[in-house]
Design brief:
The structure holds two protein chains of two kinds. By secondary structure, chain A is mostly helical. Chain A contains six helices and no strands. Chain A has one domain. Chain B has one domain. Classes of the chains: A mainly alpha, B mainly alpha.
């Protein structure tokens, strides 16, 4: 049940990225390029997504506090901000964030493969560093 | 559709649809916790196949070269790991949950994205 739900949500999520044009890095860079010909569509897509998800999360929270697995931390700390800044730089270089990059794997081009492989290596490096830090 | 997918995943499976976390978790997750991740990712990739049957896939234009692609991938991998989320996890799900953390993170990565594109396109590229 969970598997089918996950698969269908993945399909719907990916289709949403494709229909909205957000799978295209050029479109994303158009949004990030404030000084050029600014394309606000990413913000509109995001706002629409937030508004759609909002009642669902409100419902999920009320129905079952225990079921929804939320991130434990509530602190706004340096890790959160610095990590997000680093992510933003990478996002600005490629125009890819993780979702669209994965969707693009299905398009038969190999540059997204490079990007996703590098992304996994970055993630793995983080896991190794954190593991060493906790061990010491 | 993106919001509906994120909301439905939350309602049906109790998971937050943060792509970086779903993918990153594959590297560390215990047995039994990875199948739903694989299913979701299969859905993401599979969406192109279904879409392609209905109408032609949108062209994706990649400005960045191969080297830049690898550097960007590394930065995104490390950044989302430390920051605890990406555009979907913080930007869509987090804000929809009214999380202050996610709003702060979204402001941070958008600001960095704006600054990076500005530097690359208008300062360096002229």
């Amino acid at each position: 049940m969970n598997l089918i739900a996950s698969l269908l949500c993945g399909l719907l999520f990916g289709a949403g990225l494709l229909v909205s044009g957000m799978a295209d890095p050029a479109k994303v860079l158009g949004f990030l390029d404030l000084a050029g010909r600014w394309d606000p569509s990413l913000m509109l897509v995001m706002a629409a997504a937030v508004l759609t998800a909002l009642p669902a999360f409100a419902l999920a929270r009320r129905r079952s506090q225990a079921i929804l697995e939320l991130p434990a931390s509530r602190r706004i700390d340096a890790r959160l901000i610095v990590g997000s800044l680093i992510f933003g730089v990478g996002w600005g270089i490629a125009g890819f964030c993780p979702g669209p990059a994965i969707v693009s794997l299905g398009m038969g081009q190999w540059q997204p493969v490079l990007f996703v492989a590098a992304m996994l290596i970055g993630r793995a490096a983080y896991e190794v560093v954190e593991h060493l830090r906790q061990a010491s | 559709m993106i919001g509906a997918a994120a909301g439905l995943l939350g309602l049906l499976t109790g998971r937050v649809a943060g792509i970086s976390a779903i993918v990153g978790g594959l590297l560390t997750s215990r047995r039994g916790d990875s199948a739903w991740r694989v299913a979701f990712i299969a859905g993401l990739i599979g969406s192109t196949l279904i879409y392609a049957r209905i109408r032609p896939l949108p062209n994706i234009t990649l400005d960045a070269g191969n080297g830049a692609m690898v550097i960007a991938g590394l930065l995104v991998g490390i950044g989302t790991a430390y920051g605890g989320g990406c555009t979907s996890g913080h930007g869509v799900c987090g804000i929809a949950r009214l999380s202050m953390r996610s709003m702060a993170a979204t402001v941070a990565f958008m600001a960095a994205g704006f600054a990076t594109v500005y530097l690359l396109r208008h300062v360096r590229g002229g």
